[in-house]
Specification:
The protein is mainly α and about 450 residues long. The chain has a domain of about 80 residues: 434 Repressor (Amino-terminal Domain), CATH 1.10.260.40. About 80% of the residues lie in helices and about 0% in strands. It contains 24 helices and no strands. The chain is elongated, with a radius of gyration of 29 Å. It starts with a helix and ends in a 6-residue tail after the last helix.
């Protein structure tokens, strides 16, 4: 008996990486059992033989029964990984996800990187997809969008396997859609969000959180396509779902999104109301990152409503918060908004200085092309007002280049209008007229 036990232990240690049938055969032989003895009164010898040769895949219930007969962990028999080892890897992924949730992004990236070999060693695809999705999300936050897509493409391949649910597949598609949106592939992102929503709708599993997230990001696509009514409808549906879940953070995010849409529609009082409601929740949650972003929008709304002094004070607070938490992109957004305020109030030198500061903070982030383009427009207009026409031309060209990558007609139109103003200043009225016409046509919904 001791010799059989030792033999069994040696065989058990060599099981990782083998297929289920091979593990079953080695464990049976190590236990000194024939196929007939292992089958007992429950199965036939032929059925055990089929499992060992990989001709059939046993059910979970059968795996648990066979594991009991062999005296091993069911998870180990199924995957070559014991319950204890799975638990350790699962806990490590949970720790990395907690860092992700806390927005400790560099630490989260390191944690997910350190997990890779351990996750792959388990052979458990559900753990691999979970780790891939987590690492992809945190890399997106850090601007590593293409690296994120590589991880998500692998997750998508795994999620197509039959052991995954439609909800799990939808979650992966949703994340890919976010990445595609950040790379300005708006139609592709919209198709992915639609596909993800179809998977959610046909599933019987609860997924209101995921459904709400898909609606919010799909509304962003509609906004970029200037279909603001569709964007508003998606946001209203998302808000209803979030409030039903009593999810305060998501509710605040949706109020923020609703404010942006109302702003685009010219409903500035309504936009400010939504923003104030989001602000109250972010303050309650002590979410300084989103609070800083929101205050940037509030500053812009105050300016549009005729309160430039209030706008400047709010924007300075937004800039301060972004710097305190190390959010360079948020700081760039705030300082560029300040530049726009100073440009419109005639302080062109300060506008130029702040626009250049915004561009330095943004660097070459491909997921912030809209903000880069806007900063180039402000810079161009600031130097144009100082009669530095060649510098203005260079800035407007950079803005147009950024907006071309966005595939946004309204953004390109703003660059053409700026270039038209420059042409007018130079006395080239023919070129100015052509640029203004291009902008007008880009903003038309129907052309004849």
């Amino acid at each position: 008996m001791p010799e059989r036990s030792a033999t069994k232990q040696r065989a058990t240690g060599a099981q990782a990486g083998l297929r289920l049938g091979e593990r079953l055969r080695q464990l049976r032989v190590a236990g000194g059992m024939t196929q007939t003895e292992l089958a007992g009164d429950r199965f036939s010898k032929e059925y055990v033989s089929q499992i060992e040769r990989g001709k059939t895949r046993p059910t979970r219930e059968t795996i648990e029964w066979l594991a009991g007969r062999l005296g091993v962990d069911a998870g180990f028999l199924a995957n070559g990984v014991s319950a204890d080892e799975r638990g350790r890897v699962d806990a490590a992924i949970s720790r990395a996800e907690a860092l992700l949730e806390a927005r400790r992004n560099p630490e989260a990236i390191e944690a997910f990187e350190n997990l890779r070999s351990a996750v792959l060693a388990t052979g458990l695809t559900e753990l691999e997809v979970r780790a891939l999705a987590g690492e992809a999300t945190v890399r997106m936050r850090e601007g590593q969008v293409r690296e994120s897509l590589e991880l998500l493409d692998r997750a998508r391949q795994l999620a197509e396997r039959p052991e995954f649910s439609d909800i799990e597949r939808a979650d992966v598609l949703f994340r890919i859609g976010v990445a595609r949106y950040k790379l300005s592939s708006i139609q592709t992102a919209l198709n992915l969000f639609d596909e993800a929503m179809k998977l959610v709708e046909r599933s019987d599993l609860p997924a209101d959180q995921l459904r709400s997230n898909i609606l919010v990001w799909r509304s962003r696509c509609y906004s970029r396509r200037r279909d603001l009514e569709a964007a508003r409808e998606d946001v209203e549906r998302a808000l209803e779902l979030a409030e039903g879940l009593n999810d305060r953070r998501t509710t605040a995010d949706i109020f923020f999104r609703a404010s942006n849409i109302a702003d685009r529609q010219g409903h500035w009082v309504l936009a400010r109301s939504y923003a104030e409601r989001a602000k109250a929740i972010y303050e309650e949650l002590e979410d300084r990152r989103n609070l800083g972003r929101l205050m940037n929008n509030l500053g812009g709304l105050n300016f549009l409503l005729g309160h430039p002094d209030e706008a400047e004070a709010v924007l300075k607070d937004a800039f301060r918060i972004a710097l305190e938490i190390g959010n360079d992109e948020g700081a760039a957004h705030a300082v560029n908004s300040l530049a726009q305020v100073h440009l419109r109030t005639g302080d062109n030198e300060r506008a130029e200085e702040q626009a250049r500061h915004a561009l330095r903070l943004l660097g070459d982030r491909v997921d912030y092309l809209d903000e880069i383009g806007n900063a180039q427009l402000v810079l161009g207009r600031a130097v144009l007002e100082q009669d530095r026409l060649d510098e203005a031309e260079a800035a407007f060209s950079e803005a147009e280049r950024a907006f071309d990558q966005l595939s946004s007609a309204s953004h390109r139109a703003s660059a053409w209008v700026a270039q038209g103003d420059l042409a007018t200043r130079r006395g080239d009225h023919s070129l100015a007229a052509r640029l203004y016409r291009n902008a007008a046509e880009a903003l038309q919904d129907v052309r004849f």
